[in-house]
Structure formats: structure tokens, C-alpha cells
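Re-run with default settings, no changes from the original entry. Doing this only to confirm the output is reproducible before filing.
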Amino acid sequence: MLLPTSQTFTADNFALSTGASLPQLTVAYETFGELNADRSNAILLCHGYTNHPHAGGDAEGWFFRLLGPGKAIDTDKHFVVCSNMLGSAYGTSGPSSINPETSKPYGPDFPKFTTRDMIDAQHALLDHLGIDQLRAVMGYSYGGHLTFLWGAAYPEKMRALIPVAGVIERKTTHSDIERIRARFEDCPGWNGGHYYGNEDAPGGVREKMIEARVETLSRYGLGDYLAATVEDPSERERIMQNRARTWSKQFDANSLSILYEAGIGSTAIPGIENIKVPLLNILSRSDSVVDVREGPATVDLLRNAGVDATFFEIDTDFGHTGPLLEPDKWSDTLRTFIEAIDE
């Protein structure tokens, strides 16, 4: 589903690192702020696993508390590009895209790809926009992992790196993929993943997606945040259900597994000596997805490879989502780091 706030870029015959190719690559993206005359003020912002390119502009933007005029990422000064991941469900080529060989959605037959292909699709978009070098690459969660990969793969393309709530090396296994797919196998109309048009069958994919989303939002810390900020339990439940229901109408069940599969074996560690720019690694104290102890260990690893790396721990009770929910806990650190990039 292409969000009404997004636009698209297309490229023909996009080769994938797996040896497969896409006859046409489409990348959905949004921009915030204006590109300056010498095209030196661009920041690439990479979203998380199940998120989208609408990062700011209004309260629906997933990064809106930190992105906008006068905020930590000041769009009066910076031009921010947020593109939807390859294989996702918000307008970029993925399982719901039409397979030209069948004239039907690819579904589980979408060509195999890797995280390297994700950043190469972003690179193609930046070339299309005429951006030769980024002021920074920044990413949250899965996007934080992509940020590390950007530094290792394209060290001349940016002047700083800011991974947030992300890991330098993913530990995804094939059993993780099997677990995700198994959740839908007994759904009426699943049809091995070719479920399109059958989403709303009783007990079907839509209901499973809502259930999965509530679990994820709770595990990521939103449940704790609502418990701390919304007094009425029924109102908390309504908010959670509404968010999950909206997401279930936008996302693709196949994307849940193929995005995970793309991360198997994905690591930036072999290329860390390529990184030439300052790096600010941000993690949440209470994160149950990325252990905060990985922050200092990762920074030590980077420093031993000659990288100018710094770690900052956000003192938040709201887990993996804490960086997005409590901007005041780290916005000054982020602003200071960004403003120092060209000093």
C-alpha cells in the first residue's frame, strides 16, 4: 500500500546480490526539508522492520518528535530522505507487487534478496535525487542495522553514521523464518502465502496480523508507555487495537518473513575498517530487543578498528520504542552530534 504522503522512483532491471533480478524496482519514499544548492545537507533516515517512509510532517510520522523545524533533526537546515525498504509493504517492490510473469502478486515467490540489496535500492534512489554525499545516514531498529552496513559498504557516501536501537550483526536464523510463516499456515485462504483477496476470512490473515501486531507493540514497549500515560485500561486497549488494525490493512504478511530472511547472515563487522566517519550508537536502557550491553561492546569493536565511535544510552523505561517516545532523553545529544559533523 502506497501511503498518500509518499512518492515513488522506478528503475529497470535491478540486479540482486542473490543472482536474481527485478524487471522493475520501485522505491517509495518521502522527503522533509529542502535540498540546498550544493546538495550537501541530505540525511538518509532508515525505518524499522515493519514501518514506513512517513517519518515526519505530522503526528503520524514515526520519527516526528525528533524530525521537523527546530527539532533535533532540523528540517529548516536538513533535507531528510526516508525510503521504504525493499521487500516491504508501503509502495516499494515486495510480495504484493505484481509479478509480470503471472499478472498476480508475487507473494512468497518474490525474488530472494539481502540487506545489501536494501541499501543498494536506497543508493539508486539517492542517485536519482542527485545526492552524491550524505551529511549522515541514520536508522532505527532494522534501519539501525542498515546504517552500520552503509558505513561498511559505501564509506565515502556519508559524513556521519547514527544507528539507533540497531545491531551491527543480525542473528536471524531459518527457524525464525519458519516461526513467522507457521503463524499463518492454518489461516483460511492462506494458500501457501498467495492469500491476496482472502485477508478478511474469519480467523484469517487479517485477524492473525492484528494479533501479531499487538504482541509486537507490547514487546517493544508501547504497552508500558500507555500504562504510564493513559489511566483508563479500556482506552489503552482501544489505542493498541486501533494501531494494530490500521497496520494490518497496510502491511503484507509475506513481508514479515522475507524481510527477516534478508537479514540472515547480515553483518557489517567484516567491513568496519572501511568506516571513515564519526559514528554515534544509540540504545535504550530497557530495550528487550537489542540488549543495551551490545552498545559499549560494539563501540569498542569499532574503536579497535580505528572508527571514531561513541555510545549513548537512553535512560527510558519504554524499551525498544523508547527512543521514539521520549525524545527529550536524547535529542540534545543527537542535535549536538549532527551540528558537529562539518566542524
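The mean pLDDT is 97. The chain has two domains: 7-172+267-339, 175-259.
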